[in-house]
Write a structure and sequence with these properties.
This protein is of the alpha/beta class. The chain has one domain. It is about 30% helix and about 15% strand. The chain has five helices and eight strands, in the order βαβαββαβββαβα. The strands form three sheets. It has a four-stranded parallel sheet with strand order 2-1-5-8, sandwiched between helices. A two-stranded antiparallel ribbon has the order 3-4. α3 runs parallel beside α4. The longest helix is centred in the middle third of the chain and has 17 residues. The mean pLDDT is about 95. It binds iron/sulfur cluster. The site of iron/sulfur cluster has 12 residues, from α2.
Length: about 150
């Protein structure tokens, strides 16, 4: 059975920077959960960052800096590597990652100014997974995930 990687915050785990979650209520996610398809990860926590943690954004030089000015790039990269390892272990070709996150965003990220401004871009984990042939969808594209599962059975 094809497994799917999914952001932990999307399935209700309180792993966001602010200690909350971004639970996505969806019949698809419920179905895939029941089928045992979901491999759950929070790359930032897996990379060693605590909950809660200061929000961080990708800067123009590609470093990830938190709102206190600390460079957390290394933790973000470690989390991304661990997500990739997990994908390889489970032969995962599809991931559903939270849009807008500096780790998980697939088409939008914040602009680095901590002003709630979003720009086109990908998070650190998304970039690494895509580079390795794993198709990353956002939580807004679950119908596409379902279609993709059908065609890759
Ligand atoms: S790193 Fe990804 S999984 Fe973790 S809280 Fe942020 S968006 Fe959710």
């Amino acid at each position: 059975m094809k497994k799917i990687m999914i952001s932990a915050c999307l399935v209700g785990e309180n792993v966001r920077f602010d200690g909350r979650n971004s639970k996505k209520n969806s019949k698809f996610i419920e179905k895939w959960k029941k089928e045992g398809r979901l491999i759950i990860i929070c790359p930032e926590v897996t990379g060693g960052l605590p909950v809660p943690r200061p929000p961080a954004e990708i800067q123009t030089d590609k470093r990830v800096i938190n709102i206190k000015g600390e460079d957390v790039t290394s933790a973000f990269e470690q989390g991304a590597q661990k997500a990739l390892t997990l994908c390889k272990q489970h032969n995962i070709r599809i991931a559903i990652l939270k849009e807008g996150s500096p780790s998980c965003g697939s088409s939008l990220i914040h602009d680095g100014s901590f002003s709630h401004t979003k720009i086109p871009g990908q998070g650190i984990t998304t970039k690494l997974l895509e580079k390795n042939g794993i198709h990353v969808f956002s939580e807004n594209d679950l119908d596409q995930v379902a279609a993709s599962l059908e065609t890759t059975k």
